[in-house]
Specification:
255 residues, 8 strands, 36% helix, globular, binds zinc ion
Length: 255
Amino acid sequence: MALPPERLERFARHIVLPEVGGAGQAALAKAKVVLIGLGGIGSPALQYLAGAGIGSLVLVDDDAVDATNLQRQTIYREDDIGHRKAELAEVWVREFDAALDVRWVRDRLTADNAGSIVAGADLVLDGCDNFATRLAVSDACVAAGVPLISAAVGRFQGQVGAFAGHLPDQPCYRCYVGDAFDADDCDSCAEDGMLGAMAGWTGTFAALQAIRALLAPTGGMGDPQWGKLHLLDGLKPAMRTLSIAKDPACKACSR
Ligand SMILES: [Zn+2]
């Protein structure tokens, strides 16, 4: 699929990179990404995914903007307080790049609807704020054969993992955290606090890992880093990388 001249110009700084090139940019334009959570991680992640020309975006969040969000949720303004995040995020994308296909999902993601939300995606980026949703997203991705970038942040700590648990030798997010958090629905961010820029670092790094995974079929940025979890420390600052093993007893990805 050849990109039209105005798209070649828009993405010129990508296309000149040997790791992206015309083929990589065309792959991004064809890609469908489901973004779960449009908060501190999802806002900057969305800005860089849309900026990268990801052709099709599905935006999932059932929350509304409140004043405490504005310190880190970069796509919202004071006038947005009280309005639905997913709907506002769709408007943001349309105003940023009218060529992108975008739609929003108003429902809260649950184990019951996760499968239909992630179906047909090339990749899911999960930046939601609780374990129960993260596990439901991960299980649906494994079942549907969709790769997952899962990101979380609190205080000065971020983590970004790349998972392809549908592959026989690769772990899923549940292999990493286990089953204990299925019912855990707390949002520790309200209690513990979070430096806004830390959410930005974590969200943009999650977008980078998503783009890395989407470019993998064209050679792109090398290894998609399945099973790697990156821990971001904003106080030092430093980044550490852990390898997650596939759990042979995992109820989602091992049979
Ligand atoms: Zn697993």
